[in-house]
Design brief:
- This protein has 214 residues and is mainly alpha-helical.
- 76% of the residues lie in helices and 0% in strands.
- Helix 2 runs parallel beside helix 6 and helix 7 crosses helix 9.
- The longest helix is centred in the first third of the chain and has 28 residues.
- The relative contact order is 0.20.
Length: 214
């Protein structure tokens, strides 16, 4: 049984992803999305490092350390930021352009939310991470299908970020659920509140990208 359900904040319900699945997003919007979201992908190892540093539970630290190894490329040989840059290039955003892009308020709020919770209590860190990890497998699968069907993108290099995440984050989600289910009731409340705020930040980021190029 899942620890927390995003409900109306599930990212696949957002108009941005509905348009992705229907091929209604312009290439310019895909490039903008790739450039903006890179900042969150790039920052994700820092969230994990902060959470590990503050976590008193050895088992939870091990779980987070394994996640960090995935992010840094120890598991699959290529870091997740590098995989994202390959996706960006595949939709027409050169990595120099991605690296030079100025992060707008939407993605800045995502990063601030996740970093603040990573630096908060262990329960907040786990809840925030779960808000992301719990949605990623289905979102990644949908992105792959949308890119193939609507944008003619079939190459492994461009799709590799999503191929990795639709598998790896199933395991991450399950382990996080177990850790969260074992928390005391007050800690679980903290975790759910952190998950809600983090999910809202991700939702609002998609709204920013969706309207920026309208």
């Amino acid at each position: 049984m899942e620890f927390w359900n995003p409900g109306g904040l599930h990212l696949l319900k957002h108009p941005f992803y509905r348009d992705w699945m229907e091929g209604k997003l312009s290439r310019e919007t895909l490039r903008d999305y790739a450039a903006q979201y890179f900042r969150h992908v790039e920052a994700f190892p820092r969230y994990l490092e902060a959470a590990i540093a503050k976590c008193p539970d050895a088992r939870a630290r091990q779980v987070l350390a394994e996640n960090l190894a995935d992010e840094n490329g120890t598991t699959h040989g290529t870091s997740h930021p590098e995989l994202w840059l390959r996706f960006a290039e595949g939709v027409g955003a050169p990595r120099a352009e991605v690296n030079a892009a100025t992060p707008r308020i939407g993605i800045r709020r995502v990063i601030d939310s996740f970093q603040n919770f990573a630096n908060g209590s262990p329960a907040q860190a786990l809840g925030s991470l779960y808000a992301y990890e719990s949605q990623v497998p289905e979102v990644a699968h949908s992105k792959i299908e949308g890119l193939r069907q609507n944008y003619g993108i079939e190459d492994e290099r461009t799709l590799s970020f999503f191929e990795v995440h639709k598998v790896a984050d199933v395991a991450h989600r399950e382990v996080l659920e177990r850790l969260l289910s074992e928390l005391a009731p007050e800690a679980q409340r903290e975790a759910r509140e952190a998950a809600e705020v983090s999910a809202r930040a991700l939702w609002d980021f998609l709204s920013d990208v969706h309207t920026a190029r309208a």
